[in-house]
């Protein structure tokens, strides 16, 4: 694991950054996720770190630190991406973001550390198993997107999601791995909880983003757009689900998730700043 600090300039990027508008807004809506879930992940991991032993768990604590610093970079840049979308004609996106942010404040106030970690591990499972869709180019093909800082943001992010895929899983099992049967069922429940929550919030935002664009459409254009929206959501949903299904196994170990073919080439594009190189 390395902490990289790339910069992506979205000044010249349009919120409609690919030719498949419906797919682009699906991704724009998903862009809300890291901006709010990742600060939450960092808080949960800090809370978990307090339960670990500074000596016996020293390696895991080092990995938590690297994980948190990677997620810190992710949400910083995704907030810039989201500002590009919001300021590009979708001001009410802020309302969706406020609701989503409040969800995490609520979770942190009311849920147990076991629940929080299972939710976080659910999210990490979704990200790391789906990383190849971005890293190996299927997503940009689906989006009809030319090379741009928007595409690079997602590729870099998902490559690092793959890179740090084991950390939350190890923390969860270190703190709540026994009894094994319960730990497995509870982890699986966390995947479902996270998926449902994220789908619900991003579907509402996607609806808003597409509604704004459909205001200028004829009835026929709108009908075709709605058809493309359903087809795109079904296709990408199925692609993600095919990869996610293995995480429900009691023997799931993210360390054994096969890497995207282009993982190393993607990560190599973002060198580690001098003096900040660390590995785990
Ligand atoms: Fe991330
Ligand atoms: Fe992550």
Kindly describe this structure:
- There is one protein chain.
- Helix 1 (21-30) crosses helix 10, helix 2 (32-49) runs parallel beside helix 4 and helix 5 packs antiparallel against helix 9.
- The protein has a single domain (21-250), classed as Orthogonal Bundle (Ribonucleotide Reductase, subunit A), CATH 1.10.620.
- The N and C termini lie close together (6 Å).
- The chain has helices at 21-30, 32-49, 58-87, 93-110, 113-129, 131-135, 138-143, 149-163, 167-176, 180-214, 219-244, 263-268.
- It has 280 residues and is mostly helical.
- One fe (ii) ion is lined by residues 34, 38, 71, 74, 157, 161.
Structural topology:
Layout: H1 21-30, H2 32-49, H3 58-87, H4 93-110, H5 113-129, H6 131-135, H7 138-143, H8 149-163, H9 167-176, H10 180-214, H11 219-244, H12 263-268
Helix pairs in contact: 1-10, 1-11, 2-3, 2-4, 2-5, 3-8, 3-9, 4-10, 5-8, 5-9, 5-10
The protein binds fe (ii) ion (2 copies).
One fe (ii) ion binds at residues 34, 38, 71, 74, 157, 161.
Q: Classify the fold: give the CATH topology.
A: Ribonucleotide Reductase, subunit A
Please tally the helical runs, counting DSSP H or I stretches of 4 or more residues: 12
Category from helices, strands and their pairing: mainly alpha
Percentage beta strand: under 5%
The CATH architecture comes to: Orthogonal Bundle
From the alpha carbons, calculate the radius of gyration and give it in angstroms.
19 Å
Q: How is the main sheet built?
A: none
Q: In whole angstroms, how far apart are the ends?
A: 6 Å
Q: Could you estimate the helical fraction of the residues in percent?
A: over 70%
Rough outline? globular
**What's the number of structural domains?**
1
Bound molecules: fe (ii) ion
Q: What is the average of the pLDDT values?
A: 96
Low-confidence stretches: none
One letter per element, helices H and strands E, the order comes to HHHHHHHHHHHH
CATH class, named Mainly Alpha
Total strands: 0
């Amino acid at each position: 694991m390395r902490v990289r600090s790339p910069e992506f300039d979205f000044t010249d990027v349009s919120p409609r950054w690919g030719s498949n508008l419906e797919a682009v807004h699906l991704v724009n809506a998903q862009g809300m996720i890291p901006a709010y879930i990742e600060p939450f992940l960092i808080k949960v991991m800090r809370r978990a770190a307090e339960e670990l032993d500074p000596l016996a768990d020293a390696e895991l604590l080092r990995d938590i630190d690297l994980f948190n610093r990677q997620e810190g970079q992710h949400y910083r840049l995704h907030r810039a991406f989201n500002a590009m979308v919001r300021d590009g004609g979708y001001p009410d996106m802020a309302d969706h973001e406020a609701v989503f942010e409040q969800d995490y404040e609520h979770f942190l106030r009311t849920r147990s550390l076991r629940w929080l970690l299972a939710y976080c591990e659910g999210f990490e499972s979704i990200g790391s198993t789906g990383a190849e869709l971005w890293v190996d180019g299927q997503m940009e093909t689906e989006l009809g997107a030319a090379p741009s800082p928007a595409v690079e943001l997602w590729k870099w992010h998902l490559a690092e999601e793959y890179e740090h895929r084991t950390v939350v899983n190890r923390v969860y099992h270190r703190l709540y791995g026994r009894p094994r049967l319960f730990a497995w069922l509870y982890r699986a429940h966390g995947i479902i909880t996270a998926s449902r929550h994220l789908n619900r919030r991003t579907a509402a935002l996607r609806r808003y983003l597409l509604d704004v664009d459909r205001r200028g459409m004829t009835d026929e254009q709108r009908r075709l757009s709605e058809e493309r929206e359903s087809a795109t959501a079904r296709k990408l949903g199925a692609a993600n689900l095919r990869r996610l299904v293995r995480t429900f196994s009691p023997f799931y170990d993210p360390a054994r998730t096969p890497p995207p073919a282009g993982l190393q080439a993607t990560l190599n594009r973002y060198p580690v700043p001098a003096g900040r190189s660390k590995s785990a």
